[in-house]
């Protein structure tokens, strides 16, 4: 170490770390106040619709926001906003607008929510992205957390019902997990949960939504899957966990999971009955001996 390194008044050179440079490259809008805080939409080649509708590109589920409140699109190097005849007219920097060009840092007010327009990659955009990541993901497994999963399930159910598409909920619970904690400790238990989450991630497709919804409970929502496809997915995952060597403190342990499945139907067009049905199936899988997949028809 040189003298300079020890000098408390010398500023040390710091290379800008990669994550800071890898922030969003396009313009984006970020919710900075109100419902959906931290949510972001990038504005690329297609217009971005912001509103309360579950199908809006940036979905803000608050009554003060119209179903389709405003849209933002790119024209060459500039970005424009148009109010979509919202009940609470869109305001930019507190002025009501019908249509106009946006400038970096503009505040867009939609009812009780405030969004910020950021025209290019910036440290601030990265900061908001990290806040959003923390708010929506489970720190241990990096899967979605329960709260965000619930938001996404509501959105996917609305879409499936509207387009008359199938959708299946899988609830996954680790079998006899408590003895692992008791024998090896909580930190080793966390490692097992991370490994199981990794297996779940490796089995899901791009449109599937995987989350950790409780201590040793996970869920996967399979849009556009019927029960046969969901059953095949669940069996593959169950078998992969069963065949995995979990090395804990140098000892090989085998683990199993139980899975409950339920598809949307006329009686299950909302999240609560759908998740309840998958839970009933999971409970049956546990009761019938664990390490199995059960379906609630
Ligand atoms: N390591 C770790 N353990 C957790 C976490 N969250 C919950 N647990 C533990 O998960 C265990 C769940 O135990 P139980 O609900 O009795 O279930 P189980 O032993 O898996 O038994 P079955 O589900 O009936 O097969 C408890 O020991 C909890 O302390 C966590 O974040 N990390």
Automatic annotation (TrEMBL):
<dbReference type="InterPro" id="IPR043128">
    <property type="entry name" value="Rev_trsase/Diguanyl_cyclase"/>
</dbReference>
<dbReference type="InterPro" id="IPR008984">
    <property type="entry name" value="SMAD_FHA_dom_sf"/>
</dbReference>
<dbReference type="InterPro" id="IPR050469">
    <property type="entry name" value="Diguanylate_Cyclase"/>
</dbReference>
<dbReference type="GO" id="GO:0005886">
    <property type="term" value="C:plasma membrane"/>
</dbReference>
<dbReference type="Pfam" id="PF00990">
    <property type="entry name" value="GGDEF"/>
</dbReference>
<dbReference type="InterPro" id="IPR029787">
    <property type="entry name" value="Nucleotide_cyclase"/>
</dbReference>
<feature type="domain" description="FHA">
    <location>
        <begin position="48"/>
        <end position="97"/>
    </location>
</feature>
<protein>
    <recommendedName>
        <fullName>diguanylate cyclase</fullName>
        <ecNumber>2.7.7.65</ecNumber>
    </recommendedName>
</protein>
<dbReference type="InterPro" id="IPR000160">
    <property type="entry name" value="GGDEF_dom"/>
</dbReference>
<dbReference type="InterPro" id="IPR000253">
    <property type="entry name" value="FHA_dom"/>
</dbReference>
<dbReference type="Pfam" id="PF00498">
    <property type="entry name" value="FHA"/>
</dbReference>
<feature type="domain" description="GGDEF">
    <location>
        <begin position="165"/>
        <end position="297"/>
    </location>
</feature>
<dbReference type="GO" id="GO:0043709">
    <property type="term" value="P:cell adhesion involved in single-species biofilm formation"/>
</dbReference>
<dbReference type="GO" id="GO:0052621">
    <property type="term" value="F:diguanylate cyclase activity"/>
</dbReference>
<dbReference type="GO" id="GO:1902201">
    <property type="term" value="P:negative regulation of bacterial-type flagellum-dependent cell motility"/>
</dbReference>
